[in-house]
Design a protein that fits this description.
The chain is of the alpha/beta class. It has 2 domains: 212 residues, Spore Coat Polysaccharide Biosynthesis Protein SpsA, Chain A; 92 residues. Helices cover 49% and strands 18% of the residues. The protein is built from 12 helices and 15 strands. The strands form 4 sheets. Strands 2, 4, 5, 6, 7, 8, 9, 10 and 12 form a 9-stranded mixed β-sheet that branches. The protein has a two-stranded parallel sheet with strand order 1-3. It is globular, with a radius of gyration of 21 Å.
Length: 345
């Protein structure tokens, strides 16, 4: 029989009927069960709330529609237990996830813990498999002592949770988990990234959806960089949050390589072709270990498809990043000082 721990699981959900049942089944199959599961239903028009109630979850209805962080705060305010575990509505925990996660908090010097997406997940589309492989590869290279949180799975003591107004314009608070991690570190708290805490991502991407996502996320990262970059020693660490300077430079290589190919197609000038091939070669040299892993674990066909998609995906990231900086010049985020507070235990 599974044991029950003194922690609350909080799941923000908006029209999550397709995946929420599988997420809650995985929670119920855990070797260490949460004392309560709170599903914050953010204005869903499908059967999200009904599914949550079928699993005896507490349902907190809200109508915010600005991303996941504000519903997380609502769930935290309703939680009855001192440890808060935040889980997305499209990720499945493994049976030992909660046990591993909560064990870290036996150390009073650890204030927050985060995990990462598993490379393998029960999804159908190529783009979904590619995205999970990519995110797993990126996060496994990050140090154990972290200055960010990854939204799919993270936990914090209730007394350490910082309530703030996340950057959410224009696409919602999609990178507010990184904001939370940076605020915790700025307040002297330790954030731990445990690469052994993997969750399976159930989200299905098509190619267009993947490119859109990978435009929007860097767009919002540009916005929070302008807000937190001066507070973070990103030059010494050669990166900001989970994005390294080299990784960011590689997106520029992809963009200008594809731009050169386009210019060659229209002009016929081999100068553009030569430059494009050189930039493309540098791009693939940077990502050679990732692609080698895909060829080894997923096979030749998958590896070739990934090699074809990757420069377009990286170019979309570069466009999102640049657009986010330009947008922020004209629409800087202004946080009401009255919205800043630290939640009491």
């Amino acid at each position: 029989m599974a044991n029950t721990g003194q922690f609350s699981v909080i799941i923000p959900a908006r029209n999550s009927g397709r995946t929420l049942g599988r997420v809650l089944e995985a929670v119920c199959a855990s070797s260490l069960l949460p004392a309560e599961v709170i599903v914050v239903d953010d204005g869903s028009t499908d059967n999200t709330a009904e599914i949550a109630r079928n699993f005896s979850c507490r349902v907190v209805p809200v109508a915010l529609g600005r991303g996941p962080m504000q519903p997380r705060f609502k769930g935290a305010a309703a939680a009855l237990f001192p440890l808060l575990v935040f889980l997305d509505s499209d990720v499945c925990v493994k049976p030992d996830t909660f046990g591993k996660l909560t064990a870290h908090f036996s150390d009073p010097g650890i204030h927050a813990v985060t995990g990462l997406l598993a490379a393998q997940a029960p999804v159908r589309r190529f783009a979904s498999h590619y995205k999970n492989e990519y995110m797993n590869f990126i996060f496994r290279k990050k140090p154990r002592e972290s200055d960010f949180l990854y939204g799919s799975l993270w936990a914090v003591r209730q007394r350490d949770l910082i309530i703030f107004e996340p950057v959410s314009e224009p696409f919602g608070s999609l990178v507010s988990d990184t904001e939370m991690g940076m605020r915790l570190r700025a307040s002297g708290k330790r954030v731990l990234l445990d690469a052994g805490l993997e969750v399976e991502h159930l989200k299905e991407y098509g190619i267009a959806g993947l490119l859109k996502n990978d435009f929007v996320i860097p767009f919002m990262f540009a916005r929070i960089f302008l807000r937190y970059g001066r507070q973070s020693d990103w030059t010494r660490k050669r990166g900001f949050s989970h994005a390294s300077l080299a990784q960011t430079a590689a997106t520029a290589l992809a963009f200008f390589s594809l731009t050169g190919l386009t210019a060659f197609a229209f002009s016929g000038r081999f100068f553009f072709l030569t430059g494009s091939l050189l930039l493309g070669a540098a791009f693939f040299a940077y990502w050679r270990s990732f692609l080698a892993r895909l060829f080894k674990t997923r096979g030749v066909v998958f590896g070739l498809k990934a090699a074809l998609l990757e420069p377009f995906d990286a170019a979309a990231m570069f466009c999102g990043l640049c657009s986010g900086f330009v947008y922020s010049v004209f629409r800087p985020h202004r946080e009401p000082s009255s919205r800043l507070a630290v939640a009491a235990a």
